[in-house]
UniProtKB/TrEMBL annotation:
It is found in: Golgi apparatus membrane. The lineage of its organism: Eukaryota, Metazoa, Ecdysozoa, Arthropoda, Hexapoda. Its main location: Golgi. It comes from Bicyclus anynana. It comes from the Eukaryota. This is Polypeptide N-acetylgalactosaminyltransferase 1 isoform X1. Residues 485-618 form the Ricin B lectin domain. The chain holds residues 2 to 624 of 1022 of the full protein. Keywords: Disulfide bond, Golgi apparatus, Lectin, Membrane, Signal-anchor, Transmembrane, Transmembrane helix.
Length: 623
């Protein structure tokens, strides 16, 4: 063998035979050493694997121990029924500390039973609703990044418990089949008849690459040992992808007929799922939302005022979700307090949708990172492309609203702004301008990225215009370029200064004047509405004054003008633009004026012919 090898090498390398011989010898030696080393590594590897196995057992035992310790901390009865929970002394202080850091009183949460019950806050009429015996099945998808462990588990438990077959409200709903007289049990087609769950196919936990250790092995161990088998899956994402893509990952994995999304700090009320499933069955293009109740971050109080009143979703052109009262026209259309109620937008975190329809209607814009924007994107898309967004009042889920994001977002990312710009570019047509007025820096910015594929989707689905949406879905929305007599900057004739909200965001902060911006900018973008309000998008100028006994406006003193949320009833929010160029407050008869000092508050005073009381509006029927 050796000789043949030498010959071969010699031929190939054209070297003298002796050198070749040495080369070959060296070669064999190297191979020998490598072989020995490999065998040694293999042996060591085996040892390591064996060690890993025992330490795996060790860590399971450690998780078990830790969980037992957690369970020992729980104070029986604390927060039961959804009442406010309180601790005292040092515990109270630690709780407040944790809330400062995490926006939720996590210290307290750790001491409230993970499966606490909630008082039934549903409208009484909900208990008399008869649902179909066979409903679509649901995949409940919970996404999280570094959410508090006990809060996540409480969310999971509430979903599990609300879908148990042995719940009294399900038992009542079993029915006797007409004709055969057989007693039928509830369930979805193809479900194992012995399954303890009705309609709940699975719960999918999507871990958006959390870094908190307790959300890893310990959470998995808890799920494996404490929660029903084969019901809960955990998807671990290898990278932090943000909430939009985390939900997409969960949706790709889901097998239920309906996808139901929740944030990971929720508590579902009893029987929350059936009303949603029934509605998606009756109307497959309905995207349905439970009433979102407030769970207080400081004491876990599940607060409900009046089960018959709830709000639906609105928006601002800045791209923020807002809550609005159910419009009168909608109260009439829906017929009853518990009937599905059209909502112009949704908050985004809690909703259910037919799974096939979710994909058909374009799922999500997967280029949205971090937090924000996906909720309005989906809202506008659903309405413009032929679906509906509906709040289903018999379904209620509590959500812990936090005052800040406890988790870090990618640095300098401004994902809300960028995502909203993507949304505006695809869905808002010319009204996108009203968003860019607030964010001129994002206009045509490369940060926003390419939206062609979403425009193609809009084309393919033959979706309607944003104008159609405003006119038909949300006619109450104040549109600064539509429902106005004049809009733009209000320039004072004497000083050349402009009316300006001075970036004072608080309720009832005074309106002021400031040097006019060359370009229209949000703080100087005011309107005189057709109904007679002097306003920006949400707030109306209002004058507080008193009358003398004689009915006169009290004194000649100048008064400040405050920006207060528009109530639509005019009264102290009513203004008219006189032919002279004066802006007169109708109730008091006083006129808007400035002292001509930049940054000072605007005031009202007796109307007199002074250029300090004369205003020119950028765009008005008079110009
Ligand atoms: C609201 C929505 C939220 C989402 C957001 C806009 C409700 C009640 N909440 O804000 O669902 O639509 O508006 O984007 O409607 N998360 C991740 N990865 C991240 C960041 C967050 O998985 O990078 C998770 C987070 O753990 C939580 C969920 O996404 O479970 C929503 O986040 P949030 O609770 O901070 O959002 P919220 O309620 O302020
Ligand atoms: Mn949330």
């Amino acid at each position: 063998g050796m000789r043949r090898t030498v010959k071969f090498i010699k031929q190939k390398m054209k070297l003298p035979v002796r050198k070749c011989y040495h080369a070959a010898k060296a070669g064999f030696f190297v191979i020998l050493v490598v072989t020995i080393l490999t065998l040694f590594e293999h042996w060591r590897g085996g040892k390591r694997a064996a060690r890993a196995m025992t330490s795996g057992l060790d860590s399971e035992a450690a998780y078990e121990k830790a969980i037992l310790e957690d369970e020992a901390r729980i104070i029986p009865g604390l927060g039961e029924g959804g009442v406010a929970a309180h601790l005292t002394g040092e515990a109270q202080r630690l709780g407040e500390e944790s809330e400062k850091q995490l926006a939720i009183n996590v210290y307290l949460s750790d001491r409230i039973a993970y499966n606490r019950t909630l008082q039934d806050h549903r409208h009484p009429a909900c208990k008399r609703v008869v649902y179909d015996a066979e409903l679509p099945s649901a995949s409940v998808i919970l996404i999280f990044h570094n959410e508090p462990y006990s809060v996540v588990l409480r969310t999971v438990w509430s979903v599990v418990n609300s879908a148990r077959r042995d719940n009294p409200w399900f038992r009542r709903a079993n029915y006797v089949e007409r004709g055969t007289g057989r007693t039928m049990t509830l369930g979805y087609p193809g479900q194992d008849p012995n399954s303890p769950f009705v309609y709940l196919k699975e719960i999918i936990l999507v871990d958006d690459n959390s870094t908190l250790p307790e959300l890893k092995g310990k959470l998995s161990h808890y799920v494996k040992t404490r929660l029903p088998p084969d019901l809960i899956r955990i998807i671990r994402l290898p990278d932090r992808v943000g909430l939009t893509r985390a939900r997409l990952a969960g949706a790709r994995f889901a097998a239920g007929d309906v996808l139901a999304f929740l944030d990971s700090h929720c508590e579902a009320q009893q029987d929350w799922l059936r009303p949603l499933l029934q509605r998606t069955k009756d109307s497959p293009h309905a995207v349905v939302i439970p009433i979102i109740d407030v769970i207080e971050a400081s004491n876990f109080y599940y607060s409900v005022q009046d089960p018959a009143t709830f709000q639906v979703g609105g928006f601002t052109f800045m791209g923020h979700f807002t809550w609005i009262d159910v419009p009168e026209r909608e109260k009439k259309r829906r017929g009853s307090d518990i009937a599905p109620t059209w909502s112009p937008t949704m908050a985004g975190g809690l909703f259910a949708i037919n799974r096939a329809y979710y994909w058909e209607i374009g799922a999500y814009d997967e280029q949205m990172a971090g937090w924000g924007g996906e909720n309005l994107e989906m809202s506008f898309r659903v309405w413009q492309c032929g679906g509906t967004l509906e709040t289903v009042p018999c379904s209620r889920v509590g959500h812990v609203f936090r005052s800040f994001h406890p988790y870090g977002l990618p640095a300098h990312s401004d994902t809300h702004g960028i995502n909203t710009a993507r949304m505006a570019d695809v869905w808002m047509d010319e009204y996108a301008e009203l968003f860019y007025l607030h964010r001129p820096d994002l206009r045509e910015s490369p940060k926003v990225g390419d939206v062609t594929h979403r425009r193609v989707l809009r084309e393919k689905l033959q979706c309607k215009s944003f104008q159609w949406y405003l006119d038909n879905v949300y006619p109450e929305k104040f549109v600064p370029v539509r429902d106005v007599f004049g809009y733009g900057r209000f320039v004072n004739n004497a000083s050349g200064l402009c009316l300006d909200t001075l970036q004072r965001d608080a309720e009832a902060s005074p309106l002021g004047v400031y040097g006019c911006h060359k370009r229209l900018e949000a703080t100087q973008y005011l309107a005189l509405s057709l109904r007679g309000e002097l306003r920006d998008e949400e707030k109306c100028a209002e004058v507080q004054y008193t009358r003398t006994k004689a009915g006169d406006v009290d004194g000649d003193e100048s008064r400040r003008v405050l920006m207060v949320t528009c109530h639509g009833k005019l009264h102290e929010q009513n203004w008219r633009y006189l032919p002279s160029g004066q802006l007169q407050h109708v109730e008091s008869g006083l006129c808007l004026r400035t002292t001509g000092v930049s940054g000072s508050d605007a005031t009202v005073a007796r109307c007199r012919s002074s250029p300090l009381q004369l205003w020119t509006i950028d765009y008005s029927e008079r110009n």
